[in-house]
Design goal:
With 520 residues, the chain is an alpha/beta fold. The protein has 3 domains: 166 residues, 3-Layer(aba) Sandwich (Rossmann fold); 167 residues, Rossmann fold; 148 residues, Glucose-6-phosphate isomerase like protein, domain 1 (Rossmann fold). It has 20 helices and 13 strands.
């Protein structure tokens, strides 16, 4: 089957076919696959920092560890359900929540378990107020998830709800050992504290406690998910690259980017839509640094072949109308087989391994995020200065006039995340794509800061950024801090905008209405 998969890849690669074949041979010659499994940091960098010191390769074998923990997770989920908990509220940013969100959206849930109704990956006071308004707090279980135990968004959310419901049995923590959150969970008598392995970065944490605990609590059979992941993990151990599905995909991603086809355009059926969000994170945050990177394009509906430039690589799960026409027009198209829901764990691993290989091809370290801190520091400066603003700056039409072939348009939305806004943004990005023949991405702030934000600042200088700002309908205080959620969110937007401009990015702050008018 794996040979057939490689053959399928090559059928749709066009001019990339020879380059990918040569790269697979080079992976064999340099023993790259064996060296990845051996934890050899020189696969990516002569410097072990953020690879093996501290170790960031725990994702390679965490599934086996978690399989041993699956019965205990299942028992805990049944205990929570039996006590009448109706709603799960997951508080976490980036990989601390996105992995669980994907699993919950794809796996079937057994009846009788509470629903994972809310994923708070935001500082929007409107969204936080909606959670408080819509649920019975006493029948909710709040899952506080943060690898560092200090994530400002997550700990602010926790402080807000703890003030409303200071009952430890309504809280669960997922974090690394020795963090402030771990200490807090013990001090305040949280119902359970799950200590994750500290050798796994957030975006690689899908098969760890971060991904599995919320999913198990919502009724997913995580033991089956882990068992079904094992064949893919075993396949990715194959040292001959052509027979290794993760290595084949990684070689393709890397060679396509080197050839100028760095806009990885994901074509997914609706049932797998959330998987695209996770692939977006693991690709963007892992590869977007040092002026290099692969730009993942998720959620952009397929168009006619003529609206695409020569910078696209299409990767689809299954088939979709329009893919054949793209191939005929000369665009590389790869079709991965549609998956059963419980094959999701294997797909997590395929893409993680692929990113590791692509990092080798691009000569970057896929396990660090060197440009994330700049936006945090700028946000802190805004807060310490006492002035945060959602004022616009500049003319979106003038910024659109700077778009060149090979660029991509980034929409950073610090506005309501409701269906009406999502619909308007989806229509807007297609108009911009068709008009300028460039890729488009959309991310809500501050969620995207823990996903694509690294790429925007550290990746290629091909991002043209439109930060959409607006006022919140309500505002809420953050207990223990002299500021509100609205002020924090404005500072995060302002800080990221300043970090983008400091790097010379083409960026403007505007309103949705103004960008819609400019894009018509």
């Amino acid at each position: 089957m794996l040979r057939a998969l490689m053959s399928d890849f090559r059928q749709g690669l066009g001019d990339l076919n020879e380059k990918v074949g040569q790269r697979l041979s080079a992976l064999d010659r340099d023993r790259v696959i064996r060296r990845i499994w051996d934890g050899d940091h020189t696969v990516w960098s002569p410097d072990p920092t953020e690879i093996t010191r501290p170790n960031r390769l725990g994702w390679l074998d965490v599934a086996a560890d978690m399989l041993a923990q699956a019965p205990a997770l299942q028992a805990f989920a049944e205990e929570v359900a039996a006590e009448g908990i109706e709603t799960l509220v997951l508080m976490g940013m980036g990989g601390s929540s996105l992995n669980a969100e994907v699993i919950d959206s794809i796996l079937p849930r057994r009846p009788g378990f509470p629903a994972l109704r809310y994923i708070l990956d935001t500082t929007s006071p409107d969204e936080i107020a909606a959670v408080e308004r819509e649920i019975d707090l006493t029948k909710a279980l709040f899952i506080v998830a943060s690898k560092s135990g200090t994530t400002v968004e997550t700990m602010s959310q926790y402080a807000y709800f703890w003030e409303k419901l200071p009952q430890g049995r309504n809280y669960v923590a997922i974090t690394d050992a020795g963090t402030p959150l771990a200490a807090l969970a013990q001090e305040r008598g949280f119902r359970r504290l799950f200590l994750n392995r500290d050798d796994i970065g957030g975006r690689y944490a899908g098969l760890s406690y971060f991904g599995l605990t919320p999913a198990a609590l919502a009724g997913a059979e995580v033991e089956q998910l882990l068992r079904r992941a094992q064949p893919m993990i075993d396949s990715c151990r194959q040292e001959r690259a052509e027979g290794n599905p993760g290595a084949v995909l990684g070689a393709l991603l890397g060679e396509a980017a080197l050839a100028g086809r760095d806009k990885l355009t994901l074509v997914l059926p609706e049932a797998l839509a959330r998987l695209g969000d996770w692939i977006e994170q693991v690709i963007a945050e892992s590869t977007g640094k040092g002026g290099k990177g692969i730009i993942p394009v998720a959620g952009e509906a397929l168009g006619a072949a003529e609206v695409y430039g020569e910078d696209r690589l299409f990767v689809a799960y299954g088939d979709a109308p329009g893919l054949d026409a793209l191939e005929v027009a000369g665009h590389p198209v790869v079709r991965l087989p549609l998956i059963d829901p419980y094959d999701l764990g294997g797909e997590f691993f395929r893409w993680e391994f692929a990113v590791a290989v692509a990092g080798h091809v691009l000569a970057i370290n896929p396990f660090d995020q060197p440009d994330v801190q700049a936006a945090k520091e700028a946000a802190e400066r805004s807060l310490s200065g006492g002035a945060t603003t959602s004022e616009t700056s500049g003319d979106p039409a003038a910024t659109l006039a700077q778009v060149r072939p090979g660029d991509y348009i980034v929409i950073q939305a610090y506005i309501a995340r409701d269906e009406a806004v999502r619909s308007r943004l989806a229509a807007l990005r297609l108009r911009l794509r068709d008009r300028f023949r460039v890729a488009t991405t959309v991310g809500f702030g501050p969620r995207y800061l823990h996903s694509t934000g690294q790429l925007h600042k550290g990746g290629p200088d091909s991002a043209v950024v439109f930060q959409i700002v607006g006022d919140d309908a309500v505002d809420l205080p953050i207990p223990g801090r002299p500021l509100t959620f609205g002020a924090l969110r404005r500072a995060q937007a302002q800080g990221d905008f300043e970090a983008l401009r400091a790097r010379g990015r083409r960026a403007v702050r505007t309103t949705l209405e103004a960008l819609e008018a400019a894009g018509n």
